[in-house]
């Protein structure tokens, strides 16, 4: 077992190491330049498309609305990374890590845009008439038979990651948070999540997207409001927090209190790694949800999809980061969710702990829902649509096991498979980038022509 753990740790060090982070940033930057900054320039317009996407057009084909496709994607990305991941980045890389999280998000918007464009462009119908897509399908249909093995690899890694990062570790996080704050036994938490998640997951993508469309906006707004209250209480420290973020993105920060200090390389490494872990841009998970969107325009869905990265990192992660930095508690040596809890508790004695625990529980629950769909589609790609129900049952039964188990090795394994998903996806995005650029040019040229004729 020790030898196996050592092997996985070695692989993890490579797949989440500097080369992988450079690959993620490099492909994203290449796409952003190739798109001439279109994703960043069109954030406002994308929000308009998201609002319109609540009601599909009569000629739009797909399984779920564009709005619910984004909510399903966000349900899987807004999770422990927004609470524990941000705190870990600051604890290990200092305030400068937040700056590099922002840079990762701005680059990642182009990656997420390209993923969704390819997902809609190369999606297909399964034998039950439902739209299916994602990296395995745009590899198969966009790159041809020569690259089919890459699609199989992605589906395999996605299936395995869904039971780890999307299931057992999420259930474990909820059980731990509720046990610490409310003294609820882990087995009770596991059974309750299994029943609630099972009722949604067994209903398929329509039910998952419907629940996500209601729960994700509520949970995100509620958490943001709580975070803004903390910032309002600590308002005098906000300018200094921004100065710390910018200054220490480029200069080392010395040890102070319980904080061990951090070099610029640590700020970049942990900022980029935690940014990618939080918004999943480049990992290839989100396009699986966007492929089911009711739309006939890959570009319009791509613009909606890129908001996932913006909302997750630029908005939600920033509120967590500023709450931690303005509280001053980042200097005390804590890390992870306990650091975020400490920051909220300092500003809001009493309810602060409960706010973070409840937010963590809801975020993790919706992550389970979103990842169940990702894993199901990967499993279906490998074994056919009839295997979907087998996957759903196995996925639901794994939840209480995760809630009650000690998951150090599972965390490591899941984190590794999560990163391995990115390799075939990034190769496909780089090779399909001319298609993305061409579709984008044609879409905006047609819009300009229509405007001139009007």
How does this structure look, described?
The protein is mainly α. Helices cover 78% and strands 1% of the residues. The chain contains 20 helices and two strands. The chain has a two-stranded antiparallel ribbon. Helix 8 packs across helix 20 (422-453). The N and C termini lie far apart (69 Å). The model has no long low-confidence stretch (mean pLDDT 87).
**For the largest beta sheet, what order do the strands appear in spatially?**
1-2
Strand content: under 5%
What is the overall shape?
globular
- State the order of secondary-structure elements, H for helix, E for strand: HHHHHHHEEHHHHHHHHHHHHH
Helix/strand-derived class? mainly alpha
Number of strands: 2
- How many helix segments? 20
Unreliable stretches = none
Largest sheet: 2 strands, antiparallel
Mean pLDDT: 87
What percent of the residues sit in helical stretches (DSSP H or I)? over 70%
Distance between the termini: 69 Å
Radius of gyration: 21 Å
Summarize the model shown.
This protein is an all-alpha fold. The chain has helices at 2-15, 18-34, 38-41, 43-52, 66-77, 80-93, 96-121, 135-143, 148-182, 186-201, 204-233, 238-247, 264-279, 286-290, 298-327, 336-347, 351-383, 388-404, 408-420, 422-453; strands at residues 124-125, 131-132. The radius of gyration is 21 Å and the shape is globular.
SSE inventory with pairings:
Layout: H1 2-15, H2 18-34, H3 38-41, H4 43-52, H5 66-77, H6 80-93, H7 96-121, E1 124-125, E2 131-132, H8 135-143, H9 148-182, H10 186-201, H11 204-233, H12 238-247, H13 264-279, H14 286-290, H15 298-327, H16 336-347, H17 351-383, H18 388-404, H19 408-420, H20 422-453
Antiparallel strand pairs: 1-2
């Amino acid at each position: 077992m020790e030898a196996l753990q050592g092997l996985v740790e070695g692989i993890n060090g490579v797949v989440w190491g500097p080369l992988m982070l450079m690959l993620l940033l490099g492909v994203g930057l290449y796409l952003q330049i190739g798109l001439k900054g279109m994703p960043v320039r069109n954030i406002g317009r994308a929000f308009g498309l998201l609002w319109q996407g609540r009601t599909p057009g009569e000629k739009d084909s797909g399984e779920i609305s564009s709005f619910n496709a984004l909510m399903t994607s966000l349900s899987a990305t807004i999770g422990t990374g927004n609470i524990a991941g941000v705190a870990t980045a600051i604890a290990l890389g200092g305030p400068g890590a937040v700056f590099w999280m922002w840079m990762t998000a701005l680059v990642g918007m182009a990656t997420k845009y390209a993923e969704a464009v390819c997902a809609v462009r190369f999606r297909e119908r399964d034998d039950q008439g439902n739209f299916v897509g994602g990296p395995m399908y745009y590899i198969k249909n966009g790159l041809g038979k020569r690259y089919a093995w890459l699609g199989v690899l992605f589906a395999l890694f996605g299936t395995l990651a869904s039971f780890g990062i999307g299931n057992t570790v999420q259930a474990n996080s909820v059980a731990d948070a509720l046990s610490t704050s409310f003294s609820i036994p882990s087995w009770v938490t596991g059974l309750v999540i299994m029943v609630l998640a099972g009722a949604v997951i067994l209903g398929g993508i329509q039910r998952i997207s419907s629940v996500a469309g209601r729960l994700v906006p509520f949970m995100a707004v509620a958490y943001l409001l709580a975070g803004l209250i903390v910032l309002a209480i600590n308002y005098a420290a906000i300018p200094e927090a921004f100065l710390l973020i910018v200054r220490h993105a480029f200069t080392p920060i010395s040890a102070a209190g319980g904080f061990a200090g951090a070099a610029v390389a640590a700020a970049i490494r942990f900022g980029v790694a935690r940014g990618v872990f939080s918004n999943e841009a480049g990992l290839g998970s989100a396009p699986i949800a966007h492929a089911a969107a009711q739309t006939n325009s890959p570009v319009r869905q791509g613009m909606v999809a890129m908001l996932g990265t913006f909302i997750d990192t630029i908005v939600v992660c920033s509120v967590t980061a500023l709450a931690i930095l303005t509280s001053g508690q980042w200097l005390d040596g804590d890390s992870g969710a306990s650091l975020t809890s400490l920051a909220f508790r300092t500003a809001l004695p009493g309810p602060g702990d409960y706010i973070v625990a409840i937010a963590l529980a809801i975020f993790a629950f919706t992550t389970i829902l979103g990842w169940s769909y990702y894993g199901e589609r990967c499993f279906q790609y490998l074994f056919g649509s009839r295997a979907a129900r087998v996957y759903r049952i196995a996925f639901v039964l794994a939840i209480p096991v995760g809630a009650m188990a000690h998951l150090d090795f599972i965390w490591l394994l899941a984190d590794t498979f999560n990163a391995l998903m990115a390799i075939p996806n990034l190769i496909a995005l780089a090779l399909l980038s001319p298609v993305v650029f061409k579709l984008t040019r044609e879409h905006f040229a047609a819009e300009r022509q229509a405007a001139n004729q009007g």
